[in-house]
Amino acid sequence: MDSTYDNxxxxxxVGGDVVEKRADVGLDxxxxxxxxxxxxxxxxxxxxxxGDFADAQSLEHDFxxxxxxxxxxxxxxxxxxxxxxxxxxxxxxxxDRFDRICxxxxxx
Length: 108
What we know:
Elements: H1 3-25, H2 32-49, H3 56-59, H4 63-74, H5 77-84, H6 87-106
Helix pairs in contact: 1-2, 1-6, 2-4, 2-6, 4-5, 5-6
């Protein structure tokens, strides 16, 4: 199995668990890694279903900053760098960066 499939499965499963936990306890009760996974799940959902981050405004206007802050706290430099890109650049590069982001987060 290629890593993209593995990472897609991972973010759907683990991200889904974090989304459920957030619904139960709220965003403030999630750990740093859980908050990062929550926003990564949403980013992936938006890119795979809409092809862009246009719906991000309805979720959290600055979700990229949220990931960047959490990634910095966790020492995830590639994830921090990726989510620090302009929205347009990150959308254009998202699928090229996806596996490396997931691999970094999975090993945090």
